[in-house]
Amino acid sequence: MSKRAILVVDLQNEYWPTGKFPLVGIDAAAANAARVIAHARAQGDLVVHIRHEMPGGPIFVPGTEGAEINAAVLPQDGEPVITKNFPNSFRDTGLDALLKQQGVTETVVIGAMSHMCVDATTRAANDLGYSTVTIHDACATRDLEFDGVTTPAAQVHAALMAALAFLYGEVISTDAFIAR
């Protein structure tokens, strides 16, 4: 049987409507993330909270309210919190060492943003040999613009989840995850 870790990626205040970089559907994604976290805690899974910081940047400035983990998914005592400075939660952090120390073989990724840090973290976990599951309705993103064309968040999210499901692991709903 695999040992599982839930990676709660960047569910920070900056992404809520009161923050500087709000995401489409963040409240619904956070509600599902909270369900995933509660289920994981009940199962004895490792829950790892990941925070993005951008020293000197326009968002996620260390020490600001926007950089704090949102109240909907706050860590409990003893749950590790990893601070990162890049989209990939493994890059220049102790995440891989922590997971290896705990004997983790499966990662479950939830959080924000689907097209950036969730994507980078899921792909990195897969590249490092972890079995990966992404819970699509416990993730959120935003509209993206390229070359004068705006792609709605729902399409950005769907395209990214389809890409992850193609080769980088399983992509399932919160309900499907909890039903296992």
UniProtKB/TrEMBL annotation:
<dbReference type="GO" id="GO:0016787">
    <property type="term" value="F:hydrolase activity"/>
</dbReference>
<keyword id="KW-0378">Hydrolase</keyword>
<dbReference type="InterPro" id="IPR036380">
    <property type="entry name" value="Isochorismatase-like_sf"/>
</dbReference>
<dbReference type="InterPro" id="IPR050272">
    <property type="entry name" value="Isochorismatase-like_hydrls"/>
</dbReference>
<dbReference type="Pfam" id="PF00857">
    <property type="entry name" value="Isochorismatase"/>
</dbReference>
<protein>
    <submittedName>
        <fullName>Nicotinamidase-related amidase</fullName>
    </submittedName>
</protein>
<dbReference type="InterPro" id="IPR000868">
    <property type="entry name" value="Isochorismatase-like_dom"/>
</dbReference>
<feature type="domain" description="Isochorismatase-like">
    <location>
        <begin position="5"/>
        <end position="153"/>
    </location>
</feature>
